[in-house]
Specification:
It is found in: Cell membrane. By secondary structure, the protein is mainly α. The protein has one domain. Helix content is 79%, strand content 0%. It is built from 14 helices and no strands. α3 crosses α13. The two termini are 13 Å apart.
């Protein structure tokens, strides 16, 4: 059953990606697209790649404060696990890279994998609320050309949906944390129709996950979570801006904020590994809203995606090779 659902999700993602690619390339002049790609300035792209890795660095810094209640993890292990996880997100479907990232750190630091994964749930919640802040900046700071009002309405709707999802997630986590015993008893009742061996495996994992939902009580650590979130997403905004400048496109920084928010919404949609299609559609249509011609907008989308796709794959594979972790082991643990 689990494999069937995973397969269905995989094929749905491929179908969504294929459909969006058809829409994007259907009315594009190939010669104009190639001409736009040839205009790219490698200097800005180099800076964009550097900024991308700087963002991963600060993600690892933030993760250190989230893992601290479990163990004082070595920063090198946190950074390499972050790179491996984002590499896996680009290569595996359904964001399985989050499990790979948790497993990689758990193996190196000898921590319960479910507890480490719980820190990544908190990590994503911090991302969500930082993105909501960026959304507010985009709503009040972006000035769309006449005729692009639909883009702003879509942004507002996406913001409300995102806020609702994250509030529900926080409510569920609080309920799990405050009534852990009751939650595990309820789960045990739900699993009675299944084989006992399955329940004996799942319940300890859920218990470890709930135990991993911790935040440091030190104000300094809580402040560090805030500023690292702001720095991480500020760098992500600059990375998009550098991608635009590589093509000679000069737009206000708030436009890059708007495009970044669209990209965040896009990667939530089922798609093929690497978010192919959804990522390109979000970037392209975001630029079209500012009057950028279609071929140029699609060229930017292709290059910005490549900046976020290929370098981290190379870095992640290097970390796996250096850490002597078999790829098959990572894949099997991400599937369990």
């Amino acid at each position: 059953m689990k494999g069937t659902l995973r397969d269905a999700r995989f094929w749905l993602g491929l179908a969504v990606s294929a459909a969006l690619l058809v829409v994007l390339f259907r009315h594009v002049d190939g010669r104009h697209l190639l001409a736009a790609l040839r205009r790219v300035d490698a200097r800005y792209l180099s800076l964009a790649v550097f900024a991308t890795f700087l963002g991963y660095f600060f993600r690892a810094v933030r993760w250190k404060y989230l893992v601290a209640p479990l163990k004082k993890a070595a920063f090198g292990n946190l950074f390499s696990a972050t790179l491996i996880g984002y590499m896996a997100n680009n290569l595996l479907p359904a964001r399985l890279g989050e499990f790979v990232r948790a497993y990689s750190l758990a193996e190196r630091e000898q921590i319960e994998g479910s507890a480490v994964f719980a820190t990544l749930v908190l990590d994503r919640l911090l991302d969500g609320f930082t993105v909501l802040l960026l959304l507010l900046i985009a709503l009040f700071g972006v000035r769309f050309p006449v005729g692009s009002e639909a883009a702003q309405r879509g942004l507002v709707m996406g913001g409300w949906i995102t806020l609702a999802v994250y509030l529900v997630a926080i409510a569920v986590l609080l309920l799990l944390k405050r009534n852990t015993t009751g939650t595990l008893r309820f789960l045990e009742l739900c699993l009675r129709p299944f084989p006992r061996r399955f329940a004996e495996r799942v319940i300890p994992l859920v218990g470890a996950f709930i135990g991993g939902i911790r935040l440091s009580k030190h104000p300094r650590d809580l402040w560090a979570l805030c500023w690292t979130s702001l720095v991480t997403w500020g760098i992500a905004t600059v990375t998009v801006d550098l991608g635009l400048r590589a093509f000679g496109i000069s737009l206000p920084l708030t436009a890059s904020v708007f495009i970044l928010v669209l990209l965040v919404f896009a990667v939530m949609v089922p798609a093929s590994p690497g978010f192919i299609g959804t990522y390109h559609a979000a970037c392209t249509f975001g630029l079209l809203a500012f009057g950028v011609e279609r071929e140029m907008a699609l060229s930017v989308a292709i290059v910005v995606h490549a900046v976020n796709f290929f370098p981290v794959i190379v870095a992640g594979l290097f970390c796996i090779w250096r850490g002597k972790v078999p790829l098959k082991t990572l894949r099997s643990n991400s599937s369990t």
